[in-house]
Write a structure and sequence with these properties.
Helices cover 60% and strands 7% of the residues. By secondary structure, the protein is an alpha+beta fold. 37% of the residues are buried.
C-alpha cells in the first residue's frame, strides 16, 4: 500500500519535524504491540454480528483482517503526515470491495464491516493502551475518525460500481437498491438514477399475480429492483448526474419489454438524494392509484393537477362544486377522464380508449357541458374540469 509522505523542513503545527517523527514511531510501536488484540476484538465482533463467514478462516475473514492492518497503517501514515490520502492510497480498499461483491457480500454487510473494523480497531487500541501510550494514540484515533468515512465511501463506491456493471444476483441487487435508497452521501460515477415504482393497473382479480410476474420479468432482466408488497422498485441508471426535467420521458428499455401492462410512477435523483426521489415517486404512485390512471409512465408533472388540489383543501372544496353534477353518473365522469387524459382531444382515439362509439362519446360530452356549464373543447374550461375531477373523493 502506498504511504503518505511526511512533510519535511520545519515545524508543522506545534511540533517540529523530528518531534513528529518521534511521535509517529511511538504510535507505530504502540499500535503494532496492540494489533493482535485489536484483530481478535474485531474478529469476535464481526463474527457475532455478521456470522461465520467473517471468522479468521471464513470466506471474508482473511481479507478483512488484512484490510484492518492496511487501514491501521494508512491511518498511521496519514496522521503522521497531517494530511488525508489520495485515491491511489485507497485503491486496495476499492479492490477489496469489488471482490467482496463478487463473493456475495451485501452493501449493508459491507457498511457494518467498515464501521465495525476501523472504529472498533481504534477504540480497542485506545482502551488497551497504557496511560502513557494513550497520549501517543489520541492523534491516531482522532485522525482515524476523519479517515474512516473516506475509506467507507471508497469501498461503497466500488461496491455500487461493480453492481452497475456486473451485478446479477437477486439478493445482491435488492441489497444494492436498499443501500442506494438509504440517502447515504456516496459519490458514484454516473450517479443519476431514475426511481420507478412499477405495478399493474388496479381493478383486476389477479393483481397480486400480475405484480409477481412483473417482479420476475424485471429480475430476470438483471435490472436493479426491489419487490415490495404493492409495487416493484426499479432503479435505472442515467448517463449523467444531469437530471431530466420530465422523468416520464426517459427511455427505459426494461420497462418497454414488459409483457404485462404496468403503471409506473417515476422520479429522478442522484445518489445520496435518492430517498427524496423515492418519496416523490410514492406520492405520484398514490395519486395514480387514487385517480385510477391507466397503464403508462407518469411523473409528478403528469399528476400535477391532483398534486396541487391535494395540497389545498379549501380550493378542493370549491372545485368539487364544479364536478358535483357528474356525481350521479360514473359513466360521464369516466368519459371526462378519458377525454382529458392522453387523447389530445381526438374523438376517435378517446372513443377507442373508452371502448365506445365516437357518436356515443359526442353525446356524453354534450351532456357533460349541459350539466356543468363548461366546455369540453376550450382549454381553460378543460383545466378547470380536470382540477374538479382531481378534487373528487375516492
Amino acid at each position: 500500500m502506498s504511504q503518505v509522505p511526511a512533510r519535511c523542513g520545519g515545524a508543522t503545527g506545534t511540533l517540529g519535524y523530528w518531534d513528529q517523527v518521534a511521535t509517529a514511531r511511538r504510535m507505530r510501536a504502540v499500535l503494532h504491540g496492540l494489533l493482535p488484540r485489536i484483530l481478535t476484538g474485531v474478529d469476535t465482533e464481526l463474527a457475532a454480528t455478521l456470522g461465520p463467514d467473517f471468522r479468521p478462516h471464513g470466506r471474508h475473514g482473511v481479507r478483512l483482517l488484512d484490510l484492518v492492518r492496511a487501514g491501521a497503517e494508512l491511518t498511521l501514515a496519514s496522521a503522521a503526515a497531517d494530511q488525508l490520502v489520495g485515491s491511489d492510497s485507497l485503491e486496495e480498499f476499492a479492490e477489496s470491495a469489488r471482490l467482496h461483491a463478487e463473493d456475495g457480500l451485501s452493501a449493508q454487510a459491507l457498511r457494518l464491516v467498515v464501521v465495525s473494523s476501523y472504529t472498533s480497531a481504534l477504540r480497542t487500541a485506545l482502551a488497551e493502551a497504557a496511560r502513557t501510550d494513550r497520549v501517543a494514540l489520541m492523534s491516531l484515533v482522532s485522525w482515524g475518525a476523519r479517515l474512516g468515512p473516506v475509506i467507507e465511501q471508497t469501498e461503497m463506491t466500488a461496491f455500487l460500481d461493480w453492481h452497475r456493471q456486473a451485478g446479477h444476483g437477486r439478493r445482491l441487487r435488492r441489497d444494492t437498491v436498499r443501500a442506494l435508497l438509504s440517502g447515504s452521501p456516496l459519490e458514484v460515477a454516473g450517479s443519476g438514477y431514475l426511481v420507478g415504482l412499477v405495478a399493474p393497473p388496479d381493478g383486476g382479480p389477479d393483481t397480486a399475480a400480475e405484480l409477481g410476474r412483473i417482479a420476475e420479468e424485471l429480475l430476470e432482466s438483471t435490472a436493479l429492483v426491489l419487490p415490495r408488497r404493492q409495487f416493484v422498485v426499479l432503479l435505472h441508471p442515467l448517463p449523467s448526474a444531469d437530471l431530466p426535467l420530465l422523468p416520464s420521458r426517459v427511455a427505459v428499455p426494461v420497462l418497454d419489454q414488459l409483457t404485462a401492462p404496468a403503471r409506473v410512477a417515476v422520479a429522478a435523483g442522484v445518489v445520496g438524494e435518492l430517498d427524496t426521489a423515492y418519496r416523490e415517486s410514492v406520492r405520484v404512485w398514490r395519486l395514480l392509484r387514487r385517480h385510477r390512471y391507466a397503464a403508462g409512465r407518469y411523473d409528478l408533472y403528469s399528476v400535477i393537477a391532483e398534486h396541487l388540489v391535494a395540497g389545498d383543501p379549501a380550493a378542493a372544496d370549491r372545485l368539487r362544486v364544479l364536478a358535483a353534477p357528474l356525481a350521479g353518473s360514473p359513466a360521464l365522469a369516466d368519459t371526462l377522464r378519458g377525454w382529458i387524459r392522453g387523447s389530445d382531444l381526438d374523438r376517435r382515439e378517446a372513443a377507442a380508449t373508452l371502448h365506445v362509439h365516437p357518436n356515443t362519446l359526442d353525446r356524453r360530452l354534450r351532456h357533460i357541458e349541459e350539466l356543468t356549464g363548461l366546455s369540453t373543447r376550450r382549454h381553460d374550461d378543460l383545466w378547470l374540469l380536470r382540477l374538479a375531477l382531481s378534487a373528487q373523493p375516492e
